[in-house]
Write a structure and sequence with these properties.
CATH topology of the largest domain: Fumarase C, Chain A, domain 2
Strand content: under 5%
Order of helices and strands: HHHHHHHEEHEHEHEHHHEHHHHHHH
Structural class: mainly alpha
Number of domains: 3
Radius of gyration: 30 Å
CATH architecture of the largest domain: Up-down Bundle
Number of helices: 20
Strand order of the largest sheet: 1-2
Largest sheet: 2 strands, antiparallel
CATH class of the largest domain: Mainly Alpha
Distance between the termini: 45 Å
Number of strands: 6
CATH superfamily of the largest domain: Fumarase/aspartase (Central domain)
């Protein structure tokens, strides 16, 4: 009976849930067992006919999940149950199943196969989101929006610049994922304490052949388990990605507030319900879902780090935790990427509201531009700053436009003409290198995508 929201289908994409489905986990373990007997046959340790029989039967078509569970209930060992279930359907060839291996050889290598598939899907999601952000950065390259620091109006920027900052954060995550994937997706065939004693004189070749058959690399050295710094690294990275998406979603939620009203997540006007009691509501529920799930993903970092430590060549303290943290981290981050990509692709943008909000402070957000202009007229930076600070406070206290306050000040009028003041108070004239930065980073992203074999 489904209990958790991943189980019920509320969270997670079908593609990622399938990778970590219980039956798929069994299949991946069977894939490892099949590769092991194939490697044994290749080096002449077992008859090829027996290996072929085991390889043929190493499928959930023949090894039923229900039977594996039935045996496990009796013997209290999941891998041994799988081995017995596979041996049962192989007849006399079943004598060679699991030869020379230990449970973790099968479990850890199966995990590597799942992670390989999961990270491939997550990279695709990141790349798709990268493309969405690139399009948004170009579309809104010149769209003015007030920049905010400490939640207060700071200086003008553009919406395209904001999207470009987001874009490059996603690009860095793609780089990190590609860099750590080889460290994470490794298998092993090294026996009870890593010495490969049970695999005989061809042990190293058997391990090489198994991993080659499965399409992954072998760990360079291991004990009974693949060392868990590898899994901790990927869980930490997934938590970083989740936190980035949390940040993006939080920004959209803030800008959707009615008193700001600059951006808002998609809302199906014809049928979507915002509140069970308040018909007017358009709640940013999808962004809030992303923020909530990010908390769960970040919480998985602690057990992942705790799993690095183990008694001697291994204990079983990692196993129970990993059954949660690895599937959950992959499923939730993939789902969050799917959600955020859709949110940003269909984002509602109110450019008129952005222009109105820039004027809320009656020109005071351009005080730095005026200060810089005064320094070019020979005024010291500190003197100019203090003067503009006082005039900005006066504008606010008297509820007068900043231009009027500037024109009333004798010192300002001696240094700046009305025409110069008008130019200085125009937000579009104080964007610095923002547009150039957008162009440069869009080009950089396109080059990186081309190197990854992706279209612009």
């Amino acid at each position: 009976m489904p209990i958790l929201p991943i189980d019920t289908g509320r969270y997670g994409t079908p593609e990622m849930r399938k990778i970590f489905d219980e039956e798929m986990r069994i299949q991946r373990m069977l894939d490892v067992e099949a590769a092991l007997v194939w490697a044994h046959a290749e080096v002449g340790e077992i008859p090829k006919g027996d290996a072929e029989k085991i390889m043929e039967m190493a499928s959930t078509k023949y090894v039923k999940l229900a039977r594996v569970k039935e045996i496990e209930r009796e013997i209290k060992h999941d891998v041994a149950a799988l081995v017995r279930a596979l041996a049962e359907v192989c007849g006399s060839s079943g004598a060679y199943v699991h030869l020379g291996a230990t449970s973790s050889d099968i479990l850890d290598t199966a995990t590597a196969l799942q992670l390989r598939d999961a990270l491939e899907l997550i990279e695709k999601r990141l790349s798709d989101f990268e493309k969405v952000l690139m399009k948004k950065a170009l579309r809104y390259k010149d769209t003015l929006i007030i920049g905010r620091t400490h939640g207060q109006h700071a200086l003008p920027t553009t919406l395209g610049f904001k999207f470009t900052v987001w874009l490059r954060e996603i690009s860095r995550h793609i780089q990190r994922l590609r860099q750590c994937r080889e460290r994470v997706t490794v298998g092993k065939m090294s026996g009870a304490v890593g010495t490969q004693a049970g695999l005989g004189v061809h042990a190293l070749e058997i391990q090489r052949l198994v991993m080659e058959k499965l399409g992954i690399k072998p760990a360079e050295i291991s004990t009974q388990i693949v060392q868990r710094d590898r899994y901790a690294e990927i869980v930490c990275l997934l938590a970083m990605i989740a936190s980035t998406l949390d940040s993006f979603a939080t920004e959209i939620r803030q800008l959707q507030r009615p008193e700001i009203g600059e951006l808002s997540e998609p809302f199906e006007v014809k049928k979507q319900v915002g509140s069970s009691t308040m018909p007017h509501k358009r709640n940013p529920i999808t962004c809030e879902r992303v923020c909530g799930l990010a908390k769960i993903v970040r919480s998985l970092v602690f057990p992942a780090l705790e799993n690095i430590k183990t008694w001697h060549e291994r204990d079983l303290t990692q196993s129970s935790a990993e059954r949660f943290i690895i599937p959950e981290a992959c499923i939730l981050v993939d789902y969050m990427l799917f959600l955020m990509s859709s949110i940003v692709a269909n984002l509602r943008v109110d450019e008129q509201r952005m222009r109105e909000n820039i004027e809320l402070t009656q020109g005071r957000v351009m005080s730095e531009a005026v200060m810089i202009a005064l320094t070019k007229k020979g005024v010291s930076r500190q003197e100019a700053h203090e003067l503009l600070r006082k005039l900005a406070m006066k504008s606010e206290m008297e509820n007068k436009h900043f231009k009027k306050i500037l024109l009333e000040d004798k010192f300002i009028r001696e240094k700046l003409s009305e025409k110069e003041i008008d130019e200085l108070l125009n937000p579009r004239n104080y964007l610095g290198t923002a547009l150039k930065q957008i162009e440069l980073l869009i080009e950089k992203t396109k080059k990186e995508r081309k190197m990854r074999g992706l279209p612009d």
